Amino acid sequence: MKRYKLVVAYDGSKYCGWQIQPNGITIEEVLNQTLSELMQQPIKVQGASRTDAGVHALGNVAIFDGVTTIPGSRIAYALNQKLPDDIVVMKSEEVPRDWHPRFCQSIKTYEYSIKNAKLPDPTKRYTHLLMSYDLDIEKMKETAKYFVGEHDFANFCRTKGDVKSTIRTIYQLDLAQHQDVITVRVRGNGFLYNMVRMIVGALLLVGRGEYSPEQVKDMLDFPGKEVAKITAPAHGLTLVSIEYLDTLSGDSQ
Fold first, then answer.
1. pLDDT digits (tens, 9 = 90+) for 131-145
2. Is a pLDDT exceeding 50 seen at residue 252?
3. Is 52 considered catalytic here?
């Protein structure tokens, strides 16, 4: 029995997220079924990030244990012959039996895409949030600076029972605008449930003039304070990469 690592990209539009659940098809379910068929044995993958319904990925990471004569680096090619077009294994490799993507130090990078226009672009309807309001990009950039560093993100998440701490570190939070598309890029040592989408929601409130940058700073400085907040829709979010800080994989691509 050996352990293998997969780097997985997918369009999450028609899936109910990563994790298996009773109300619809998921990325994990498709990978399990396809790997089990390929390797002629029951296979269950374990993912590094349990993305929500509609969220996309370019570099999610998963592991599985199994017995096969296929070299680790060739499993990706064999899998991609059987997977649907909206799921692609970008890389596969054998890893030590005790390596687990959830228990290693890592840096995760997400991007959120906003189409800031009066009319929708049908080619971006599953990957970009349409915002027909005028957005003040400079105030959004000013606000983004407050998130960088170690903070208690209790006001920017929907906590679950197994969360021991809401303190996380953001290394980078940038906004870039190209024509009518705004991209929010955030890198950190870990993210709470809905955290990126709620950060984007706060930036949008500032961009629309409903909140000041200082009000968002207060949300960070006083994590127990009750405040109005919004969660940006899932379909604008993409998990870009997971970089591991151990000697196994300095890059996750």
1. 999 999 999 999 999
2. no
3. yes
Instruction: Specify the 3-state DSSP secondary structure of 170.
Output: strand
The pair of three-digit structure tokens given for residue 44, joined into one six-digit string: 């269950």
- Give me the residue label for tokens 């300095």: 250
Closest residue by Cα to residue 61 from 28, 39, 37:
28
CA distance 81 to 98: 29
Give yes or no for a contact between 182 and 138, defined as CB atoms under 8 angstroms apart: no
pLDDT digits (tens, 9 = 90+) for 187-208: 999 999 999 999 999 999 999 9
| Domains of the chain: residue spans and CATH | 2-103 (3.30.70.580), 106-241 (3.30.70.660)
Task: Write down the pLDDT at residue 229.
Answer: 87
Cα–Cα separations (whole angstroms), residue 1 to 74, 224, 233 = 17, 48, 41
The residue annotated as part of the active site, out of 11, 52, 134, 218, is 52
DSSP 8-state assignment for residue 113: E
Three-class SS state of 10: strand
**CB burial readout 168-203, b (16+ within 10 A) else e:** bebeebebeeeeeebbbbbbbebbbebbbbbbbbbb
